[in-house]
Amino acid sequence: MAGQVLPHDVHGSGPERVLVIHNWFGDRSSFDPVREHLNGDDFSYAFLDCRGYGEAIDTDGDFTMEEVAADALAVADHLGWETFSVVGHSMGGKAAQLMLLDAPARVRSIIGVSPVSAAGFPLDEATWELFAGAADNPGNRRAIIDNTTGGRHGDAWLDVMVKRSLERSSAAAFRAYLDSWSRTDFHARVDGNPVPVLLVAGAHDPALGAEAMAATWLRWYPNARLEVLDDAGHYAPEEAPRELAAAVEGFLTR
C-alpha cells in the first residue's frame, strides 16, 4: 500500500529517530504534555496525525491500521529517516507492528503505550455498541475515557478529553478505525519476532493493562518487557507525561 505524507512536526534534532503515532481518541496534540520532558539533543521525534484526525481531519482514506502504517512510513521517507523506532499509543501500537512487518529492516524498536495487540481487542456485544456509538455520541466517549482511566479523574479533566476528541477527529474516521484496530488479527505474523519492545501500561487501565500485555505482546515478542506507570490509566501522555518520557528514553538509551 502506498502511503501519503500527512501533517507532522519534528521535536528535537538528535540522531536517535522516533516516529510517534497517536491513539483512537486524540490526534498528535495528545502528546503535547510529553514534549517538555523529552531530550531533543539526543533524539528526534516525529509526531504525525492519522487520516481523519488533527490537521489531517479532512484527508480521505480507508481508515485502517494498514493505511496508518503506510502513511507513517511515507513520513519517514519524507524526513529521510532510513531507520527509526516507533512509539504507538493504543491503536497506534497496532499500526506500529504493521510498520515492522512492512519494513523490518527499518524499525529498530517498538514502544507501545497501552498498545492494542496484533490480535486486536475483542469486545462483547454491549461494549461493542458503546464503542461504535462513541463516533457520534459524546457521552459514550466520556464513559470509555472514564472507565479506562479507572474513574480517577474529575469532570473538568474528562470534559477536556472529550472536547478535544470531538474537535480533532472526524466521526467517519473514528468509527472506521474501530473495525480495524479491534477486529483484525495478524498475531501469527509477529509471533517470535526479535525486535526490542517496551510496553508501557497504566496501573489503572482495566482494558490494556499488565494482564492484557502478558496475554498478548509478552507471549509473542521474546525481547519485550513491561513497565507499569503507577499514576496512569490508558492515557499516559496526559496522565503521567514525565514518567512516560523517562520510560521511553530510558529504553531507547539502553
Please provide a written account of the structure.
- The protein is α/β, with parallel strands linked by helices and 254 residues long.
- The chain has a single domain, classed as 3-Layer(aba) Sandwich (Rossmann fold).
- It is 43% helix and 16% strand.
- The protein is built from twelve helices and seven strands.
- A seven-stranded mixed sheet has the order 1-3-2-4-5-6-7, with helices on both faces.
- Strand 2 (16-21), helix 1 and strand 3 (43-48) form a beta-alpha-beta unit.
- Helix 2 packs across helix 3 and helix 5 (138-148) crosses helix 6.
- The protein is globular and about 45 Å long.
- The N and C termini lie far apart (33 Å).
- The model has no long low-confidence stretch (mean pLDDT 97).
Q: Keyphrases for this structure?
A:
globular, AB_hydrolase_fold, AB_hydrolase_sf, alpha/beta, hydrolase activity, 254 residues, single chain, Rossmann fold, 12 helices, seven-stranded mixed sheet, Esterase, hydrolase, 43% helix
Summarize the structure.
This protein has helices at 32-35, 65-79, 91-102, 125-133, 138-148, 155-167, 171-183, 187-190, 210-215, 217-220, 236-239, 241-253; strands at residues 8-11, 16-21, 43-48, 84-89, 107-113, 197-202, 224-229. The protein has 254 residues and is α/β, with parallel strands linked by helices.
